[in-house]
Design goal:
The chain is mostly helical and 292 residues long. The protein has one domain: Tetracycline Repressor, domain 2 (Orthogonal Bundle), CATH 1.10.357. The radius of gyration is 18 Å and the shape is globular. Its main location: membrane. This is Polyprenyltransferase. Keywords: Cell membrane, Membrane, Transferase, Transmembrane, Transmembrane helix.
Length: 292
């Protein structure tokens, strides 16, 4: 289920909630159960969707993993393929039902969850095998996940839908270099990823400046840039499998910092710091469980 990655998906939701303005006039001391419960449900939804998506990734890759990654749960015999299918279906179902609990059938959250789950399954089965469509497909899952958080406020997705394109580009860039994790990558792929990273940083920084909150977002942006660019530069100098793997893992975990930067760009420093607190949790889980 990639627990460390699920934490980054929860960070997407929290960033989306902040972007929507849901907590605009609220403080931690004034929050009520009615206000926090929808956020908890969306966090549960993304945990189910992400967990289910990566479980099915392993299901579809069972034969390949026997050769390239025999330590994974299914080829190593920790869990059978049938048990994994049951688990994956359960997780996706929980994710979709949790999303529909926010806004009901007339709201957009549940339908975004269905779209996210469908995108994940399409990537797992077909998308990953396409050099261009695969990274875009994977990025779409993240973009929809951010919109899932934004959907907590009715009508907010119509205003901020374009922000969902940023994680699409970012994750497409991460996925682009991830193809070289096993046998090594190329300097060209790392260059492409570096350009995409730069566009993401400029977009978040530009929006923060437009909102007159650049100074508040700058520390988060600098940390984000350092986390993703340092291992990517090493992979550029030596695109071996281990270096590519470290760059990919850094790109995934750094999503939490990117989301904190989004929150800070919308003048919610307290919530940005709260999102950032997820980073050590994700990094700790990353030492116990596989990230890629």
């Amino acid at each position: 289920m990639r627990p460390a990655n699920i934490i980054t998906a929860i960070a997407d939701i929290l960033a989306g909630v902040a972007i929507s303005g849901y907590f605009l006039n609220a403080t931690f001391s004034s929050l009520t159960l009615d206000q926090t419960l929808p956020v908890v449900c969306l966090c549960l939804a993304t945990a189910g969707l992400y967990g289910g998506g990566v479980v099915f990734n392993d299901i579809f890759d069972t034969d390949l993993d026997k050769i390239e990654r025999p330590e994974r749960p299914i080829p190593s015999g920790v869990i059978t393929r049938i048990q994994a299918i049951i688990l994956g279906c359960y997780l996706l179902l929980v994710g979709i039902l949790a999303a529909f609990s926010v806004g009901g059938f007339h709201g957009i959250a549940g339908w975004l969850a269905i779209a996210t789950g469908a995108s994940a399954l399409i990537y797992d089965k077909w998308g990953k095998h396409h050099s261009f469509l695969g990274p875009v497909n994977m990025g779409l899952c993240r973009g929809l996940n951010l919109l899932l958080g934004i959907s907590i406020v009715p009508g907010a997705v119509e205003t901020w839908w374009w922000i969902g394109l940023v994680p699409v580009l970012y994750i497409a860039a991460v996925t682009n270099i991830s193809r070289g994790e096993v046998y090594g990558g190329t300097s060209t792929s790392t260059r492409i990823t570096a350009v995409c990273y730069g566009i993401v940083l400029l977009t978040i920084g530009g929006l923060a400046a437009y909102n007159h909150h650049l100074l508040k977002a700058l520390p988060f942006l600098l940390l984000f840039a350092w986390m993703i660019m340092k291992p990517l530069y090493k992979a550029f100098k030596d695109p071996s499998g281990p270096n590519i793997g470290k760059a990919v893992k850094a790109g995934i975990v750094a999503l939490i910092v990117m989301n904190a930067a989004w929150v800070a760009a919308f003048d919610a420093i307290g919530y940005a710091l709260s999102v950032l607190l997820l980073l050590p949790i994700s990094m700790g889980l990353g030492k116990i469980f596989a990230i890629t």
